[in-house]
Structures are given as C-alpha cells and as structure tokens.
Design brief:
The complex is a heterodimer of chains A (about 375) and B (about 325). By secondary structure, chain A is mainly alpha-helical. In chain A, strands 1-2 form a two-stranded antiparallel sheet. The termini of chain A are close together. Chain B folds into two domains: about 90 residues, no CATH class; about 180 residues, MetI-like fold (Orthogonal Bundle), CATH 1.10.3720. Chain B has about 325 residues and is mainly alpha-helical. In chain B, about 35% of the residues are buried. Chain B is flat. Chain B starts with a helix and ends in a 7-residue tail after the last helix. The chains are: A mainly alpha (about 375), B mainly alpha (about 325). At the A-B interface, helix 8, helix 9, helix 12, helix 13 and helix 14 of A face helix 1, helix 7, helix 12, helix 13 and helix 14 of B.
Chain lengths: ~375, ~325
C-alpha cells in the first residue's frame, strides 16, 4: 500500500535541467546510496569527469533485469500476447481438411474459427486437427483460448487507459489544488469502495445488459459476436478502478508539491499547469506504472469472473471465463477442457503479479518489501 | 467515544444514501420497461399499462420514486421481482442467502483458525524454510483468482476418484446448515477453497504485522530485562500484532453474502450466485439491485464493526 512513499527524485532525467540546477547538489546528497547518481542533476559534473552517465531509469532497468522471476514472467506474458495476436493468423492455415457435419469438406480456415461448431466432434482429445482438443460444443479449444486471451488483453487495455488518465487527472488536481475537488474525490472514493467492484459491474450489466447488443453492435471486435456486454463490463470495471489510482496519485502529489524544486519553479514564475506537466506528473510515473500493472491483473480476473458467471462475454464469443463456464459440466470426464483456460489464466495472472513486484523493487528501491 | 461513533455514523449514512441513489437511478434509467415486463406481451393494452404504471407509482417524478424506494427499504421491502410474478425480492433471496453465508462463514472460521497462527508462526521463524513454504503457498493462493483454485480443487477430486476408485462428489450442495456425513462430503471442499483464499490474506497480514511489532522498542525492552521469549511473544507482541487483523476481519464480514459467488458457480451450489445469474438473464433487475445494495450495506457494516472493535481493543484510538 505504501509503495508511494518513495523519494521525489525517481525519474529526474525527464525533468528540465535548468530549473533543477540550484538544488542539484542537495538532491544528489539525499539520494539512496543504492541508486547510482545520474540524470541531468549531475550531468554537468559528469561531463567534467568524463564518466558514463547512468540514468535512474537505466538503473531501475538493470535492477529489473536481475530479478529472474520477473524476467521469466515477462517472457510468459509476451508469449501469451503474441499467441493472442498472431496465433490465429497461423493456426487458421494449419491442419488437414475434415468432413464437416453440415458444410461438406472444410479446411482449417473454417474449423479453426473460435466459433465454429462440429457437433459430432465434441469433447475430443488433442489431435492434429484440434491441437488442444474440442469443447463440449465441438469447438476448437486452442482457437477459443487465443480469442479469450485477446479479449482479456483488450478489456484490460480499455480499463487501464481510463484508470490511468482519470486517476492522474483527478489525483493531481486534488493533490495540487485541494479544495472542492479533493473533497469530491474523498467522498466519491468512499462510495465506490462500498461497492465491491464486481457487484457494480453486475448491477450495470443486469440493468443495461440486454440493450447493450444494439448499442455497441458497431464497435470493432468488442461489439460483435456476443461481446457487447463486455464494453459495459469494461466501463463498470474502469469506473470502480480509477478512484484507488487517484488516491495514490493524490498522496504522492501532496509530497511532491512540497519539494524544493517545485518551490523553485513556482518562485521563478512557472505557471501551475507547467509545474504539473513537467515536474509533478513525470515524478508520478513509477507509482502509476506499479499500481497500473497490478490493476491489469485485477481487470483480467474480473473480466474472466464476469464471463464465468455468464455476465460478460456470451456465446458465440470466447473468453477465458466463458471457456471455464462451458467446460464445468465435463470436468469429471474431460478435465483438460477446464484446465486449458484455467492454467492460461493462472499463468497470466501470476506473471503480471510477479512483473508488478519486480517493477516495484526496481523503480522503488527504498521500500523494504 | 460517542463523538467517534457519531462521526462514523454520519459518514455511513452518506455512503448508504449515495449507494442507494446510484442503484435506484440506474434502474430508473434502465431501457427495460418494468411495466411491460410485468404485463407480458400478450396481455398488453394501453389502459392496462397506464393503470399498472400508476398503481406501481412509476408515473411519479424520479425524486418521489426515490423517496418511495427509500421508505420501502426502511421497511425491509426490497421491491418485487418482474418474473416470478409478484414474488417479493426478499423471498427470492431467502432461498440462496443462507447457503452463501454458510460457505463464507465456515470458510472464514477455517481461515482464521489456520491463517493467523500460521502467519504468527511464520513471523517468529522468519526466513526459515517453514516461513518460506508457508508464504509461498499463501502468495500463490493470494495471487490466483479464487475460481482458478476452485477448478484445481475439482480436478484433484476427479483425479482421486479415477485413480483410487473413490466416489467423492464433485459438485452440488446438501441441506443448508445440516451436517450429516453426506452433507459434509459435499460441503467440505468448497468451504476449504474459500478458506484457502482467505487464509492467504490473513497469514500474510499476520506475518507482516507480527514482524512489525517484534521490531518495536518495548519488545526489545522486555527481552532485555530477561523475560522468557514465550512471554514476550504471546503476552506482549501477539496482542498488538492482532490489531490490524480486526480491520481485515471487518472486510470479510462484509462479504459474507457475496464472497463466494465464483465458488458457487464452479461447484454448482444453489446460493446467491445462481439467483443473480437467473435475474440478469431474465432482465429481472430489482433482484440485482437488491443484491448490490445488500452487499454495499454489508461492506459498510463490516467496516463499522471493525471500527468499533478497534476502539474496544485499542484504547489509544478512542479520541481520534
């Protein structure tokens, strides 16, 4: 929780050097010894000495690279992202022709579609035709998995954009100016925290779900194939996600605005907007990155959960949660059908949590665990 | 003390009013016309429609409707379902809530009994293999979504059934709050899954909290004056380490009703989860509204309970 207690000088290389010069010595002295001195603060002395500059960002990156668990997690995550984006392009062209129930002889471009059903091929084991087998409706598990992961990525991106933009905007304004906007944020967060995130999504979907298909039908990917309620789910998840981010940002802004370099900027007549954009926001980035990463994991879990309850993605669309839900009836005879989406989800969520931990340790070396 | 409760009470009322307003206004703005839902397609006539709308008070302006909604709530009337004709929402929820509470209650008890001692033990033996093992398990249970753990549990049962010729049930639920042998067989796995995720939370929190306390000056003083380590830990440190756990307990009390949504879905348990799913599929949003409101009230009440417990346990907080 208290990961936002780090020093003010975490990302100083983005800051303009001119304004910083008066306190540069001061900042270097107060910096944690683990963190190699760098950035524009020390650039003048560095040029004199002729040594190679290690920016704090670079130092953080080096620390991150040493974290084996995080690096493996990045590999796992990249694998799933590539699988979701490029997997279908390849998979649709690999496989023998089969005799379909209704459509005669068809190739992989048809039966490897995630919504293609072959009712005579239900619950099959992995084979050359279906690499991971088929689900209880005779659909290819691997295709559905790739589509499901794609949906997870899309939803988490959508939520993350809202979360970060609103979180920073409201958080900075509340922290920097205080006043009514601060009051608003405090009250709003109280109310939102009383709604468990999922219950709000369920409420929104329960009330508007039936009409979302017509409302969002024209959106690409998200609007089609029974995914329309997903837009609603994303809105709901974003709505309950951003206040927490705003609270973190607010607390950090309160600390940052008392820093000497902000005071110096103010004294030299820099406008408030410019101070926020060039001095406050860049220093918030490590906090936002850490909190945002963990929020992605939450969003993916919540989306899968909603689809598992039958409230997110609906047939014929695919989602990790919906795949679990479809396979529940055959757990005792064909456990692979439920294990495929479950293991994928577990891998993704664990990977993101480990990356989040690694990022926190790398960007924020002062906190102990 | 009175001032503290008053201040909390005002905040609580504000939150409850906001939550009820949000739930109400979303339903008010819904594109689903409740009157049409009630009438059904074949019984629709314009006069019938207007008469029913008037009798339900749905032709009033929104603030009057909201007032009526609040008054009904204060009389524990959560409204009427659209689909199960004229059935009180309360009546519908009554079928599922006891079962959901049963899972969450026993799960919470199990988690407290295992989680807190294991967390404390981990802290005392910090950085030994016991601690590492305990914390690795807890981290895994904490990071993984509950339905993933539930599915794993189910697959393990299936594996045992197949390979050891058992016939342990994979899903379903027995009679609520009855514990014959067959009931226990059905109930123990879902409850343990709920307990496992909650255990992770308490074990981690208890360990952090205990480590924090063991670092305090008074613990060092107690040790320095030669007090037995057992007394230092169990009489001086433990009681203070338990303080933050009260807040967590309040949080979980708030989720007694809707905490097991996913476990119910995976194990096919007829709790509140299936009621919500049916209601959403049927556009029966009063049921969903009521559930949301109940959960929110649960969360707020849980927080309040935690606050009050806190003031009783920790006298320093009384005046703040």
């Amino acid at each position: 929780m208290n990961s936002n207690e780090q020093g003010p000088d975490l990302v100083p290389e983005i800051l303009p050097g001119g304004v910083m010069n008066p306190q540069s010595v001061n900042i270097v002295e107060t910096r944690d010894p683990v963190l190699p001195p760098g950035g524009p603060n020390t650039s003048i002395t560095d040029k004199k000495a002729g040594t190679k500059t290690i920016t704090p960002f670079r130092a953080a990156f080096n620390r991150f690279k040493r974290d084996k668990r995080a690096i493996v997690s990045v590999g796992v995550l990249v694998f799933f992202v590539l699988l979701a984006i490029f997997g279908p392009l390849i998979y649709l062209h690999v496989g023998p022709s089969i005799q379909s129930d209704l459509a005669g002889t068809i190739g992989p471009t048809e039966y490897h579609q995630y919504y293609h059903q072959e009712l005579s091929r239900q619950d099959q084991d992995p084979s050359a035709v279906y690499w991971l087998g088929t689900d209880p409706y005779g659909r290819d598990l691997l295709s559905r998995l790739m589509q499901g992961v794609l949906i997870s990525i899309l939803v988490s991106l959508l939520v993350e954009v809202v979360d970060v933009v609103l979180g920073i905007l409201i958080g900075v304004l509340a922290g920097y100016y205080g006043g009514w906007i601060d009051q608003f944020l405090a009250r709003f967060t109280d109310v939102v925290f009383a709604f468990p995130p999922l219950m709000f999504a369920i409420l929104l979907i329960g009330i508007f779900g039936s009409s979302s298909n017509s409302a969002f039908a024209n959106l690409p990917i998200l609007g089609e194939n029974g995914n329309a309620r997903l837009v609603l789910a994303s809105i709901a998840l974003a709505f309950v996600a951003w206040p927490l981010m705003a609270r973190y940002v607010r607390a950090q802004t309160l600390q940052l605005k008392e820093q000497q370099y902000v005071e110096a900027a103010r004294t030299s007549g820099t406008s408030a907007v410019r101070i926020i954009l060039r001095h406050i926001i860049p220093n918030l980035m490590s906090l936002v990155i850490i909190a945002g990463t963990l929020d992605i994991a939450n969003t993916i879990v919540n989306e899968a959960g909603l689809s598992l309850l039958g409230l997110g993605v609906t047939e014929p669309g695919s989602s990790l949660g919906l795949m679990i839900s479809d396979a529940l009836g055959t757990t005792d005879t064909h456990p692979i059908e439920v294990l495929v989406p479950t293991l994928a989800l577990a891998a993704i969520v664990l990977a993101i949590s480990f990356i989040g931990d690694g990022l926190r340790d790398a960007l924020d070396p002062n906190t102990t665990n | 003390m009175a001032q503290f409760i008053l201040k909390r009470g005002i905040g609580l009322i504000f939150v409850l009013i906001s939550v009820s307003f949000i739930t109400f206004i979303l339903g008010y703005l819904s594109p689903i016309d409740p009157v049409r839902q009630l009438l059904g397609a074949q019984h629709y006539t314009l006069t019938g429609y207007i008469r029913l709308k008037h009798s339900l008070g749905l032709d009033l302006p929104w603030y009057q409707q909201y007032y009526n909604y609040l008054v009904n709530l204060l009389h524990f009337n959560l409204g009427y379902s659209f689909h199960s004709q004229d059935r009180n929402v309360w009546d519908i929820l009554k079928d599922g809530v006891p079962i959901s509470v049963e899972i969450a209650f026993w799960g919470l008890v199990a988690a407290l009994l295992v989680g807190i001692p294991s967390g404390i033990f981990s802290a005392i033996r910090a950085n030994t293999w016991v601690d590492t093992a305990n914390m690795s398990v807890a981290l895994l249970m904490y990071a993984l979504p509950v339905f993933v753990i539930a599915v794993f549990a189910q697959v393990i049962i299936v594996y045992i059934n197949v390979h050891f010729n058992q016939s342990w049930p994979v899903a379903d639920w027995g009679t609520p709050w009855h514990y014959t042998l067959s009931d226990l067989q059905l109930k123990i796995v879902p409850i343990l899954v709920y307990g496992a995720t909650t255990y992770a939370y308490f074990a981690r929190l208890a360990r952090t909290s205990m480590l924090e306390v063991l670092r305090q000056d008074y613990v060092r003083t107690a040790r320095a004056k030669g007090m037995a380590e057992r007394i230092v830990i169990y009489q001086h440190a433990l009681r203070n380490a338990l303080l933050p756990l009260i807040t967590a307990l309040g949080y979980f009390i708030g989720f007694l009703v809707t905490g097991a949504l996913f476990i119910e879905r995976i194990f096919n348990i007829p709790g509140i989860s299936s009621i919500i799913i049916t209601a959403v599929t049927n556009n029966d949003f009063p049921v969903v509204q009521a559930t949301t409101l109940l959960t929110a009230i649960g969360v707020v009440a849980g927080n309040l309970i935690a606050d009050l417990l806190y003031t009783i346990v920790d006298p320093r907080i009384k005046l703040s």
